[in-house]
Write a structure and sequence with these properties.
Blueprint: H1 3-15, E1 23-26, H2 30-42, E2 48-51, H3 54-62, E3 76-81, E4 85-86, E5 92-93, H4 100-108, E6 110-118, E7 131-135, H5 140-149, E8 153-156, E9 167-172, H6 179-187, E10 192-195, E11 197-198, E12 205-210, E13 213-216
Parallel strand pairs: 1-2, 1-3, 3-6, 6-12
Antiparallel strand pairs: 4-5, 5-11, 7-9, 7-10, 8-9, 12-13
This protein binds ribose-5-phosphate (R5P).
Ribose-5-phosphate (R5P) binds near residues 82, 84, 96 and 98.
């Protein structure tokens, strides 16, 4: 089965968590795009959605979903999003699409976070995927030097600006054996807006699509 087909399968499985009239948090990326397509096809009617990126907002509006600001809602019942890597403790690396900061905010504001991935994203230990870190532009070089002291090899994502007007450093080679500790260390560097490790706030449920079907973890 193609990876595209697996994304559609896991998107359909995520729909079982979505109820009519829900205020839903919606992530960013190709798996979430498949979810938005399946939501449109399902005929389910949300009350509204809180979106994690301009790209997702555009797609949601195109299928007739009302998009509201997180500042105008309370906590959300459910957040649906993809990930770049997932470990056995449902900790994640996110931010391959550069939307990590808004994603982490919405995940934090949601009572349940259902993460949707295909089996290629599952790892025993996080870190094969370079860790995205959103940084304030004037702090770029300073933050990169601090990340190098932590053992990482940061690379500026060339030609990319986040929806918040910031930059992304993609960091290889960090030791992520203890992702909670590394998330703390990175968060303490001045100039870091957000780190793509979701270890303090892991997913509550991970739906994994493979040739064998959907596994719920
Ligand atoms: O910034 C992007 C998000 O964290 C995505 O959830 C992540 O990159 C996975 O995207 P995709 O579903 O396209 O693999």
């Amino acid at each position: 089965m193609s990876q595209e087909r697996l994304k559609i399968e896991v998107a359909q499985a995520a729909l079982k968590h979505v109820e009519d009239g829900m205020l839903l948090g919606v992530g960013t990326g190709s798996t979430v795009n498949a979810f938005i397509d399946q939501l449109a096809a399902s005929g389910k009617r949300l009350e509204a959605a809180v979106s994690s990126s301009e790209a997702t907002t555009e797609r949601l509006k195109a299928i007739g979903v009302r998009v509201v600001e997180l500042n105008h809602t309370g906590d959300l019942e459910l957040y649906i999003d993809g990930a770049d890597e997932v470990d056995e403790h449902k900790r994640l690396i996110k931010g391959g699409g550069g939307a990590l900061t808004r994603e982490k905010i919405i995940a934090g504001a949601s009572r349940r976070f259902v993460c949707i991935v295909d089996a290629s994203k599952c790892r025993p230990i996080l870190g094969e995927f370079p860790l995205p870190i959103e940084v304030i532009p004037m702090a770029r070089s300073f933050v990169a030097r601090q990340l190098a002291k932590l053992g990482g090899q940061p690379a500026l994502r060339e030609g990319f600006t986040t929806d918040n007007g910031n930059l992304i450093l993609d960091v290889r080679n960090l030791d992520l054996i203890d992702p909670v500790a590394m998330e703390d260390r990175i968060n303490r560097i001045p100039g870091v807006v957000c780190c793509g490790l979701f270890a303090h706030r892991p997913a509550d449920t991970v739906l994994v699509a493979s040739e064998d079907g959907i596994q719920s973890r």
